[in-house]
Write a structure and sequence with these properties.
The structure is a single chain. This protein has 175 residues and is mainly alpha-helical. It contains five helices and two strands, in the order H-H-H-H-H-E-E.
Length: 175
């Protein structure tokens, strides 16, 4: 009935609040049907960035690791269940050293060097003359016996003569 015009009123002051409400409702309907003037959608991502292949690969690897670990746990649980409560306390692995090969090679090298040194020592003739040492020892023993005051060992005779107060005696005394 009254499209754009306000209805006739008898009292202008009474009609103002109703007019205000009607104008506000008209404004809200226009705003709801209004189209934007500025494009605020932004740019679209390139196809290779929409689908992050590296992230998907990492997730697949993680999922595979988790599945493998789950299978290992399930198999050990099945083995425990099959053992019917028996204690399995044996280690299934051999302790390994990171430098065992190097140490073994060094040990072999030192063993070979020691063997070479041993062979050189045993193949070499002695530079010591045992016969000369023995003859020197016998001479030293004779000198010691000759210069000693008292006889060494049981009843040794000496050719030395001792002089006591003008009397000569042979040293043939037994102690």
């Amino acid at each position: 009935m009254y499209a754009n015009k306000l209805p006739p009123v008898s009292k202008r002051y009474l009609q103002d609040p109703w007019d205000y409400r009607r104008n506000y409702q008209l404004h809200r309907t226009k705003v709801s049907f209004a189209l934007p003037v500025v494009d605020t959608k932004g740019t679209s991502k390139p196809v290779h960035m929409q689908r992050n292949l590296k992230k998907q690969q990492l997730q697949d690897e993680r999922r595979a690791t988790i599945e493998r670990d789950n299978l290992l746990l399930a198999s050990s649980l099945a083995r425990i269940e099959a053992s019917r409560g028996l204690l399995d306390h044996k280690n299934q692995y051999q302790p390994m050293s990171l430098n065992a090969d190097k140490r073994r090679a060094e040990l072999l090298l030192v063993s070979r060097q020691n063997l070479n040194i041993y062979q050189r020592i045993t193949a070499r003739q002695s530079e010591y003359r045992r016969q000369l040492w023995m003859s020197d020892w016998e001479k030293a023993e004779k000198r010691r016996v000759n210069i000693s005051r008292y006889p060494q060992g049981p009843k040794q005779k000496s050719n030395r003569k001792l002089k006591f107060a003008g009397v000569e005696e042979n040293e043939e005394t037994t102690h």
